[in-house]
Protein backbone atom coordinates (compact mmCIF):
# COMPACT_ATOMS: atom_id res chain seq x y z
CA UNK A 1 0.00 0.00 0.00
CA UNK A 2 1.26 3.47 -0.80
CA UNK A 3 1.27 5.41 2.44
CA UNK A 4 0.70 9.09 1.75
CA UNK A 5 -1.38 11.90 3.19
CA UNK A 6 -4.94 11.10 4.17
CA UNK A 7 -4.72 7.34 4.52
CA UNK A 8 -7.56 6.01 6.62
CA UNK A 9 -7.13 3.78 9.64
CA UNK A 10 -9.79 2.08 11.74
CA UNK A 11 -9.34 2.12 15.51
CA UNK A 12 -11.16 -0.81 17.13
CA UNK A 13 -11.55 -0.36 20.87
CA UNK A 14 -11.30 -3.51 22.96
CA UNK A 15 -12.10 -3.11 26.63
CA UNK A 16 -12.58 -5.25 29.70
CA UNK A 17 -16.23 -6.14 30.32
CA UNK A 18 -16.68 -4.11 33.51
CA UNK A 19 -19.69 -2.58 35.21
CA UNK A 20 -19.15 0.97 36.43
CA UNK A 21 -21.04 3.18 38.82
CA UNK A 22 -22.92 5.99 37.05
CA UNK A 23 -20.34 8.48 38.36
CA UNK A 24 -17.39 6.44 37.05
CA UNK A 25 -19.15 5.96 33.69
CA UNK A 26 -19.60 9.75 33.39
CA UNK A 27 -15.90 10.23 34.11
CA UNK A 28 -14.96 7.67 31.45
CA UNK A 29 -17.41 9.14 28.91
CA UNK A 30 -15.82 12.59 29.39
CA UNK A 31 -12.36 11.13 28.78
CA UNK A 32 -13.63 9.59 25.52
CA UNK A 33 -15.26 12.84 24.37
CA UNK A 34 -12.10 14.82 25.17
CA UNK A 35 -9.80 12.33 23.41
CA UNK A 36 -11.93 12.02 20.27
CA UNK A 37 -12.53 15.78 20.31
CA UNK A 38 -8.77 16.32 20.27
CA UNK A 39 -8.44 14.16 17.17
CA UNK A 40 -11.38 15.96 15.55
CA UNK A 41 -9.84 19.41 16.17
CA UNK A 42 -6.80 18.23 14.20
CA UNK A 43 -9.10 17.39 11.26
CA UNK A 44 -8.15 13.71 11.56
CA UNK A 45 -11.60 12.09 11.92
CA UNK A 46 -12.48 10.40 8.61
CA UNK A 47 -15.75 8.88 9.79
CA UNK A 48 -17.57 8.99 13.08
CA UNK A 49 -17.60 5.62 14.72
CA UNK A 50 -20.07 4.08 17.05
CA UNK A 51 -20.13 2.95 20.64
CA UNK A 52 -21.23 -0.70 20.63
CA UNK A 53 -23.39 -2.42 23.22
CA UNK A 54 -21.84 -5.53 24.78
CA UNK A 55 -24.63 -7.82 23.56
CA UNK A 56 -24.88 -8.99 19.98
CA UNK A 57 -25.64 -11.85 17.64
CA UNK A 58 -23.01 -13.96 15.88
CA UNK A 59 -23.49 -15.59 12.47
CA UNK A 60 -21.15 -18.54 11.89
CA UNK A 61 -20.49 -20.77 8.92
CA UNK A 62 -23.36 -23.11 8.12
CA UNK A 63 -25.92 -20.41 8.98
CA UNK A 64 -25.47 -21.00 12.73
CA UNK A 65 -26.75 -17.99 14.67
CA UNK A 66 -25.85 -17.57 18.34
CA UNK A 67 -26.24 -14.89 20.97
CA UNK A 68 -23.03 -13.34 22.13
CA UNK A 69 -20.61 -12.29 23.26
CA UNK A 70 -21.15 -14.03 26.54
CA UNK A 71 -20.66 -12.90 30.13
CA UNK A 72 -17.57 -15.08 30.54
CA UNK A 73 -15.79 -13.11 27.84
CA UNK A 74 -13.26 -10.85 29.53
CA UNK A 75 -12.93 -8.31 26.72
CA UNK A 76 -15.53 -6.68 24.48
CA UNK A 77 -15.38 -4.73 21.24
CA UNK A 78 -16.55 -1.38 22.59
CA UNK A 79 -16.64 0.69 19.41
CA UNK A 80 -14.60 2.16 16.57
CA UNK A 81 -13.66 5.34 14.71
CA UNK A 82 -11.95 5.95 11.37
CA UNK A 83 -9.06 8.43 11.37
CA UNK A 84 -6.89 10.06 8.72
CA UNK A 85 -3.14 9.83 9.15
CA UNK A 86 -0.06 10.01 6.93
CA UNK A 87 1.26 6.61 8.07
CA UNK A 88 0.67 3.77 10.48
CA UNK A 89 3.14 5.46 12.85
CA UNK A 90 1.06 8.64 12.79
CA UNK A 91 -2.08 6.58 13.43
CA UNK A 92 -0.40 4.93 16.42
CA UNK A 93 0.49 8.38 17.75
CA UNK A 94 -3.19 9.40 17.49
CA UNK A 95 -4.20 6.25 19.39
CA UNK A 96 -2.05 7.20 22.40
CA UNK A 97 -4.23 8.61 25.15
CA UNK A 98 -7.23 6.44 24.27
CA UNK A 99 -9.32 5.92 27.42
CA UNK A 100 -9.58 2.18 26.69
CA UNK A 101 -5.89 1.94 27.56
CA UNK A 102 -6.55 3.45 31.01
CA UNK A 103 -9.05 0.69 31.75
CA UNK A 104 -6.78 -2.20 30.70
CA UNK A 105 -8.07 -2.33 27.13
CA UNK A 106 -6.41 -1.90 23.77
CA UNK A 107 -6.71 -0.10 20.44
CA UNK A 108 -6.44 -2.30 17.37
CA UNK A 109 -5.30 -0.19 14.42
CA UNK A 110 -6.05 -1.39 10.91
CA UNK A 111 -5.32 0.23 7.59
CA UNK A 112 -8.46 0.78 5.54
CA UNK A 113 -8.29 0.29 1.78
Which SSEs are present, and which pair or pack?
Elements: E1 7-16, H1 22-41, E2 45-51, E3 56-60, E4 64-68, E5 75-85, H2 88-95, H3 99-102, E6 106-111
Structure description:
The chain contains 3 helices and 6 strands; from the N terminus they run E-H-E-E-E-E-H-H-E. The longest helix is centred in the first third of the chain and has 20 residues, at 22-41. The protein is globular and about 40 Å long. It has a single domain (7-111), classed as Dimeric alpha+beta barrel (Alpha-Beta Plaits, 2-Layer Sandwich). The chain is of the alpha+beta class and 113 residues long. The strands form 2 sheets. It has a 4-stranded antiparallel β-sheet. Helices cover 28% and strands 39% of the residues. The mean pLDDT is 85.
Keywords, separated by commas or semicolons:
two-stranded antiparallel sheet, 4-stranded antiparallel beta sheet, 113 residues, 3 helices, globular, alpha+beta, Alpha-Beta Plaits
Unreliable runs: none
Q: Measure the end-to-end span.
A: 8 Å
Going by helix content, strand content and strand pairing, the class is alpha+beta
- In DSSP terms, counting alpha (H) and pi (I) runs of 4 or more, how many helices? 3
Given this structure, which CATH class is correct?
Answer: Alpha Beta
Structural Rg = 16 Å
Amino acid sequence: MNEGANNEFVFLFRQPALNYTPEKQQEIDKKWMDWIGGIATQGKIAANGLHLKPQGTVLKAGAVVTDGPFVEIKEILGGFIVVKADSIDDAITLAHGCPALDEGGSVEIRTAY
